[in-house]
Automatic annotation (TrEMBL):
Cross-referenced Pfam families: Sigma70_r4
Keywords for this protein: DNA-directed RNA polymerase, Transcription
Keyword match Acyltransferase: no
Residue intervals of the RNA polymerase sigma-70 region domain: 150-198
InterPro entries, per database record: RNA_pol_sigma70_r4, RNA_pol_sigma_r3/r4-like
Superkingdom of origin: Bacteria
GO MF, one example: DNA-binding transcription factor activity
KW Iron (keyword) present: no
UniProt feature coiled coil, ranges: none
One GO term describing the cellular component: DNA-directed RNA polymerase complex
One biological process term in Gene Ontology: DNA-templated transcription initiation
Name this protein carries in UniProt: DNA-directed RNA polymerase specialized sigma subunit
């Protein structure tokens, strides 16, 4: 998996440019060096010129990659900071999703106040994101953890886990779909869970049941 630090080494630093290109311009004229489809019909693309395009449905924002430094947010009425170097070894898009989500959220707030200025078109200082910042960060990291665990499994085991945990089906429903007995489904699930427990670190063992739905 490409890390954020590795991505920074292969793109240009466009931080000092005053005019940020539009999403349309990037798609038509720039070279994409990294792309990731995300949950909730979202997509994030990093371009050679150092700009990032983040889209959720019909909404999009563009920002320079190198402005994404420390992540600051408010949690339980206190200001919390995730330092820039924490994200360096994370998948390249973790920090950039947080930036994109914050900008789209601010844009929506601006539109609601009848002041249609896109935050992707101005230079701004990083400031607090609401409590949702911590939840979103934890959600992204949980998604990456679950994906890593799923890669440990056989294809049949992945099919079982997907149906039971992601699609919320019963073991009886899965047995009918796959043409096997219910005890065979139960045994396969137990073996898959044991394999993940044996090969996961402490952070993976703390995943909550709701975290699984974000990984597929």
């Amino acid at each position: 998996m490409l890390t954020l630090q590795e991505l920074k080494q292969v793109v240009s630093n466009g931080e000092e440019r005053r005019k940020v290109p539009s999403a349309k311009y990037l798609r038509e004229n720039d070279v994409a060096v990294a792309k990731q489809r995300l949950m909730d019909c979202a997509e994030i693309i990093a371009y050679q010129t150092g700009y990032v395009l983040y889209c959720v449905g019909d909404y999009a924002t563009v920002f320079p990659l190198f402005t994404c430094r420390d992540y600051v947010y408010e949690a339980e009425r206190k200001i919390a900071v995730v330092e820039e170097n924490f994200f360096d070894d994370q998948p390249w898009y973790v920090r950039l999703i947080l930036e994109g989500e914050d900008r789209l959220w601010r844009n929506r707030e601006t539109r609601e106040h009848n002041n249609c200025i896109s935050y992707s078109c101005i230079s701004e200082e990083w400031c607090e994101l609401a409590d949702k910042g911590q939840c979103l960060l934890e959600r992204i990291i949980a998604e990456e953890t679950v994906r890593g665990l799923m890669n440990l499994l056989t294809e049949r085991q992945r099919q079982m886990i997907q149906r039971i945990y992601f699609q919320q089906k019963t073991q009886k429903e899965v047995s009918h779909e796959l043409g096997i007995t219910v005890p065979a489904v139960s045994k396969c699930i137990s073996q898959a869970m044991q394999k993940m427990r044996n090969n996961s670190d402490d952070s993976a063992r703390t995943l909550k049941k709701g975290d699984w739905k974000y990984a597929w």
